[in-house]
């Protein structure tokens, strides 16, 4: 714990309520300053899809290492095919059958495909003329030894994996996907955050993280504080027990385990979200109510996962520019997330007010719109951006 | 093997070359008619992200099952708060501390947050008035028992998983991701298709498939025919040994194992691709040369994976409308794939001609353009669609 963290005030909201909530942008700033990608590791190519290269990769040698056949067919001396055509077959004295990748036999400087030749008894005739080099892949045609193949920071595409494998790089240094530990409060109550594991794991996967473990969030403050400092995770998502009830032990447990740097975000839903660090690991506190957990993940925690994964920090949802079908009322001082559905005229209709709990309304929605803390809402027919619940941008 | 399949002619191209190649659209038609999603299975929610529901899901009961607190705070009789304000605290005779999800105590019809109350010694005073029902989540507010939650065919979003879990549906009937077996020809030669495992697995994953196993493609025709009919896969990708050389045993092996329905596609690269069935399982034959394998996957095999996954069959790449920076020459009768890079003016510059082997040029490209079999090419400045190598559309 640094001196600065120790000095941060911890305001216990249990049984009292929030005296203030921080703007969401404070949470973003914390994430942008404190969350970094895990240290580079050398991983086998099969585990590297979509990850970023930590270092530039250069060709280990000339590649291909020698002239070779680029076709299945006959290796020939191009000069021997001079004048050949389908009405003028030319016998080839030195035709050698080769397959793609075979070294070029001595005396040959071209490969003609089987389609350009015909066998007449034991003899091969060319029925098409070729130029020297035709059908041949030259030494170093792909890359000369030491030349750059892929730059540092490259997000590895499928074809890059094939390129690296072809070049003999079977494992490469990458920024690994961050290991995210999910802790879920149990209990038979409304929030039932223990039921949010599949949802949160799917969101973490979308944002480039790997869910290492989904565990139980202890109801006891001391036990929870100990759970936060267990090693093995790059990021912790803790869902449930963030509110103002007497059993809402997540914020004080995080304060004890390290630092509770923000608790209470001026947004609806999700206003009891928080964040801090335990044992150097960022911990994101999500409310247990399912819709509040979704909102706090999308607007806050997801940014931390994407930062740790080296992906763009902004919201990953595809956006649609549209107009409101109805007035959307919003609370001043609070960022409001409205679930909306696009009607047949392409206008956005609210499905549920920001405070309405549960995911049934999210399932009926096509996406969400955000009304900033400085706004009382927007009239009907106003232009607005919808963030899609079904389509995502990828970089 | 059906009578129709047995009757299909098998043209052996080894040592002879292709007498004709089929248009790519014939391959698409075969895939659209023959490849179906695997049978529905009931899977745990954690394995269902992105899959399609096989059946509609309805609420098993009222949900919530009873009126309950939607806030942490005090359950009250709303009438008792009449006239309360910060300058007029009103003592509450029957305030009961409740947490989100707690059942509403008898006689209470609202919940006020801790922020709207203050404790004065052992007494609780309201400092804000509330209406009946405020802070209360009504029985069946999310869904009444038997009402529809999610329709059949729904592609499950993260929030849907939370919705289903909250409603007690911990496993649901879905169309499972197709299991794809990848067979790779070995050998030290150019194609080195054995090195394409990571690339093909990443592509299959992108298209909604699950790679069950990556195995060796036997060089022996009989052994390969047996490998094709092993059970356990919904789709087989076989890379390498598809050409006209004497060791190109994949097409005859597939003909022996079931049916070789197409071999030779009029496209560059990837013209030795093919497809057929073995033991009822679709088998896609990809060339072993890495760039040809990539093209044949993107233009042909990927469609089969997406069909089997219940995803839209069209190319999944995000598209960009742009103009050519240079003339692109194309061969009549052959669909040509040109790797292109976008220059600083946003024009598309060719990186390599369609026949140029290797993935180094694909790694330098931003995407590809397609020039149809009926075209000799396009002049510079012509409008054209680029398919991105880095961004994908998702439905």
Automatic annotation (TrEMBL), chains A, B:
- Name the keywords, alphabetized: Magnesium, Metal-binding, Molybdenum, Molybdenum cofactor biosynthesis, Transferase
Q: Which Pfam families match?
A: MoCF_biosynth, MoeA_N
Q: Which organism is it from?
A: Azospirillum lipoferum
- Pathway noted in the entry: Cofactor biosynthesis; molybdopterin biosynthesis
What's the top EC group for this one? transferase
One GO biological process term is: Mo-molybdopterin cofactor biosynthetic process
Q: Which family does it belong to?
A: Belongs to the MoeA family.
The MoaB/Mog domain covers which part of the protein? 182-307
Q: What does this protein do?
A: Catalyzes the insertion of molybdate into adenylated molybdopterin with the concomitant release of AMP.
Protein name as annotated = Molybdopterin molybdenumtransferase
Q: Catalysed reaction per UniProt?
A: adenylyl-molybdopterin + molybdate = Mo-molybdopterin + AMP + H(+)
Per the UniProt entry, the Enzyme Commission number(s) are 2.10.1.1
Please provide, in alphabetical order, the Gene Ontology terms of the cellular component aspect for this entry. cytoplasm
The cofactors named for this UniProt entry are:
Mg(2+)
Q: Is Metal-binding found in the keyword set?
A: yes
- One MF term in the entry's GO annotations: molybdopterin molybdotransferase activity
List the PANTHER family hit by this protein, alphabetically: GEPHYRIN, MOLYBDOPTERIN BIOSYNTHESIS PROTEIN
């Amino acid at each position: 714990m640094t001196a600065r963290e120790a000095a941060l005030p911890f305001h216990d909201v249990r049984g009292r309520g929030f005296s203030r909530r921080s703007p969401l942008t404070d949470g973003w700033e914390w994430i942008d300053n404190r969350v970094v990608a895990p240290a580079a590791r050398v991983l086998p190519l099969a585990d590297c899809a979509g990850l970023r290269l930590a270092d530039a990769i250069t060709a280990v040698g000339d590649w291909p290492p020698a002239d070779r056949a680029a076709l299945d067919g006959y290796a020939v001396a191009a000069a021997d095919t001079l004048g050949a055509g389908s009405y003028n077959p030319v016998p080839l004295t030195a035709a050698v059958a080769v397959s793609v990748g075979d070294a070029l036999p001595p005396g040959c400087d071209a490969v003609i495909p089987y389609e350009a030749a015909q066998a007449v008894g034991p003899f091969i005739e060319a029925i098409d003329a070729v130029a020297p080099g035709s059908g041949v892949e030259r030494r170093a045609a792909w890359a000369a030894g030491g030349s750059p193949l892929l730059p540092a920071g490259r997000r590895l595409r499928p074809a890059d994996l094939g390129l690296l494998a072809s070049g003999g790089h079977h494992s490469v240094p990458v920024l690994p996907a961050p290991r995210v530990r999910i802790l879920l409060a149990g209990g038979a109550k409304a929030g039932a955050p223990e039921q949010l594991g599949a949802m949160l794991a799917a969101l973490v996967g979308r944002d480039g993280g790997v869910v290492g473990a989904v565990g139980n969030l202890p109801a006891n403050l001391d036990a929870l504080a100990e759970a936060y400092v267990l090693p093995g995770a790059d990021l912790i998502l803790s869902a449930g027990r963030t509110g103002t009830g007497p059993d809402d032990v997540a914020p004080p447990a995080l304060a004890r385990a390290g630092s509770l740097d923000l608790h209470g975000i001026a947004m609806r839903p999700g206003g009891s979200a928080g964040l801090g660090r335990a044992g150097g690991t960022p911990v994101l506190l999500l409310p247990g109510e399912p819709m509040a957990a979704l909102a706090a993940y999308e607007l806050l925690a997801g940014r931390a996962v994407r930062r740790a994964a080296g992906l763009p920090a902004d919201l990953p949802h595809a956006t649609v520019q549209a107009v409101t079908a109805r007035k959307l009322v919003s609370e001043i001082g609070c960022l409001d997330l409205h679930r909306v559905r696009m009607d047949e005229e392409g206008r956005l209709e609210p499905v549920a007010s920001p405070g309405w709990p549960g995911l049934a309304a999210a399932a009926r929605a096509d996406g969400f719109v955000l009304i900033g803390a400085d706004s009382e809402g927007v009239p009907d027919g106003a232009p607005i951006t919808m963030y899609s619940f079904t389509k995502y941008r990828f970089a």
